[in-house]
Amino acid sequence: MSKIIVLMGAPGAGKGTQARLLQERLKLPQISTGDIFRALKDSQTPLAMEVREIMAQGRLVPDELTIRLVKERTSQDDCRNGYILDGFPRTPAQAESLESLATEQGNEIFPVLIDIPTEILEKRMTGRRNCPVCGEIYNVYFKPPKHDNVCDVHTDTQLAHRADDNPETVKARLITYEEQTRPLMNYYRSRGLLRTVDGNRDPEVIYKEIEAIVT
Asked: What are the structural domains, with CATH classification, of the chain?
């Protein structure tokens, strides 16, 4: 039976890193609903045109159409052995739709929560700095540069700090995540499906644990 891996976790929890590792090593495509919606502008299918019209009117795309888009994308050949979902499901209603799709496709769902204490998440995001030249990412708390606010490689380059990585914005993002995602986590927990991994460890250690869960 093929697998649908649903990675969950707050902003800064490391979902992107784990999704990339799973994609590289298990050869499973990462399906992002954001990518699906961006690809609609070049698609001429009836479904794409229907969704484009809704978005052009500034309305939210209904769950029923979103799951149809996911179904359309995951029916492609690269998903025949399973796939990783990024950004879907977001609600219990979407999770129920995904269960129906999984049954239809003959897949098994593996919801995995990467759990990290809020104070660590806040430091991960507010402490982020990056080199505008090479893209190397630093963190003033966990991975500081050798010299204050300059890249270790490009030593004449000041590190950049994203405007939305300030304490107020970060706290608001984490509160929003908690409010929106808690019902989904409770849904999977009540069904005995949710597996939780400690995200406050080395990415390779986290990956090994997730790999053991889904394989």
From this structure: 2-116+193-214 (3.40.50.300)
